[in-house]
User: What shape does this take?
Amino acid sequence: MSSSSHQRYGLDQPQPNALWNDVIESLVGHRSVRTYLDTPLPEGTLDTLLAAAQSAATSSNLQAWSVIAVEDPARKSRLAVLAGNQAHIVQAPLLLVWLADLSRIERQAQRRDVQLEAPAYLDSLLVASIDAALAAQNAVVALESLGLGGVYIGALRNDLAAVIDELQLPPLVFPVFGLCVGYADPEKPAAVKPRLPQSAILHREVYSHSHERTLIDTYDQTIAGFYREQGLDTPSWSEQAIGRLRSIKTLNGRERVSATLKNQHFGQQ
Ligand SMILES: Cc1cc2nc3c(=O)[nH]c(=O)nc-3n(C[C@H](O)[C@H](O)[C@H](O)COP(=O)(O)O)c2cc1C
Assistant: This one.
């Protein structure tokens, strides 16, 4: 029996799950944490998170990612400003910036006087970004299992060029997102946010959206109720998602990502 899966789907009662264990309970109990205590992280936290991150699968064992641990309050503040003034970046004791990183391999090629052709192609950017995302998510699973909290910071791409400058990133390195890490403030607990019903995201054999409309309508009501309970005046999921994508303005500067990536020698082909 799970204590979190009913919250994940906005149901009133816990549902019986035949297949369940503590790892899955921790995964399904995930919530993004945006209010942190100033309690320092326990000794060895970074080592453990890195071991979990490096244990993720990696395309062709390229290990085409790196991470920057930012603890300096002044640097965190500067990055917070670049990421839309998100206070939790300053508050959390640790900000991890996850990097798609093909530069390490390029350096090995240079040592052998070899010119790499593939990094300029879009798929190489995908390979390195997927590697970074899988590693980061392993770290999130690990930190949550240790009683810590985290939140991803995609807004680090709002002013990508300035973040690249701040972190002194060489060509073929790109910050995919940040991740705040710390102890959640128990006075302001985050809740498990309901997701779409499984039948809305699962397709069997081929893609079909024939039953989607009623599923989404129901979910819109569920999530609206969730936001009301949280004291938030947030529109339905559909409204929110459309609003997030409807105009270039909502990209908050990320419309420049493509040009900045090209400056970093990524995605030219
Ligand atoms: C790649 C990525 C970037 C995100 N960027 C931000 C961000 O900049 N600021 C923030 O507060 N939350 C950010 N989030 C957190 C999402 O808003 C959050 O995961 C989503 O609303 C679902 O809530 P939950 O994680 O509590 O289940 C990001 C999540 C992901 C996966």
User: Anything to note?
Assistant: The beta strands are 65-70, 94-101, 149-153, 173-182. Residues 30-32, 34, 86, 151-155, 177, 193 surround flavin mononucleotide (CB under 6 Å). The CA atoms of residues 62 and 105 lie 8 Å apart. The radius of gyration is 20 Å.
